[in-house]
Amino acid sequence: MSYTYDYPRPCVTTDCLIFKKIDSKWSLLFIERANEPYQGCWALPGGFLEMDEDLETCAARELQEETGLTGISLHQLYAFGAPHRDPRHRTISIAFWGFDETDQQAKGSDDAAKAQWFAIDNLPSLAFDHELIIQKALSNDEVKNMLTE
């Protein structure tokens, strides 16, 4: 059954903050965007929710599609919904975080030109509101506790 609404509806996405200890430094995984908006810029792995999936499934799917990483336990962080966070349309993103303790190699695919780890004390300039998402994650007690272990 299809519906037509009198009012516009927002889109929903998920974004993933994946942490990993590399050479004794905590790092975060980013993708280089292959498409507009922000083509060529770094961003958190993520994308649009499909109509038949839940939020965590979407986050895991997008992570796998864009970086090849699988089997990482994801935890919901926060919802980000500023009206102009995405220049295409009204988009609400649910951010998830997790720790990669595997030997998998992240590699850009799908709509990611590449995937790369950056030390959290030396992050690149980022697309969308992803700096805000990272700040929120780094202030989260659970994440802070894991990063200090």
Describe the model.
With 149 residues, the protein is of the alpha+beta class. The chain has one domain: Nucleoside Triphosphate Pyrophosphohydrolase (Alpha-Beta Complex), CATH 3.90.79.10. It is 20% helix and 33% strand. The protein has 3 helices and 7 strands. Strands 1, 2, 3, 4, 5, 6 and 7 form a 7-stranded mixed β-sheet that branches. The longest helix is centred in the middle third of the chain and has 13 residues, at 55-67. The chain is globular, with a radius of gyration of 15 Å. The model has no long low-confidence stretch (mean pLDDT 96).
Short description:
With about 150 residues, this protein is an alpha+beta fold.
The structural class is alpha+beta
Shape: globular
Q: In sequence order, what are the helices and strands, one letter per element?
A: EEEEHEEEHH
Low-pLDDT parts are: none
* Radius of gyration over all CA atoms, rounded: 15 Å
CATH superfamily (homologous) name: Nucleoside Triphosphate Pyrophosphohydrolase
Q: What's the number of domains? A: 1
Mean pLDDT: 96
Task: Supply the number of helical segments.
Answer: 3
Query: How many extended strands?
Result: 7
Q: At CATH's second level, what is the architecture?
A: Alpha-Beta Complex
How much helix is in the residues? 10-25%
Largest sheet: 7 strands, mixed
Residues in β-strands, percent: 25-35%
Features:
7-stranded mixed sheet; alpha+beta; 3 helices; 7 strands; 149 residues
Chart the SSEs and their pairings.
Layout: E1 11-22, E2 25-33, E3 42-43, E4 46-48, H1 55-67, E5 75-80, E6 91-99, E7 112-119, H2 130-138, H3 141-148
Parallel strand pairs: 1-6
Antiparallel strand pairs: 1-2, 1-4, 2-3, 2-7, 5-6
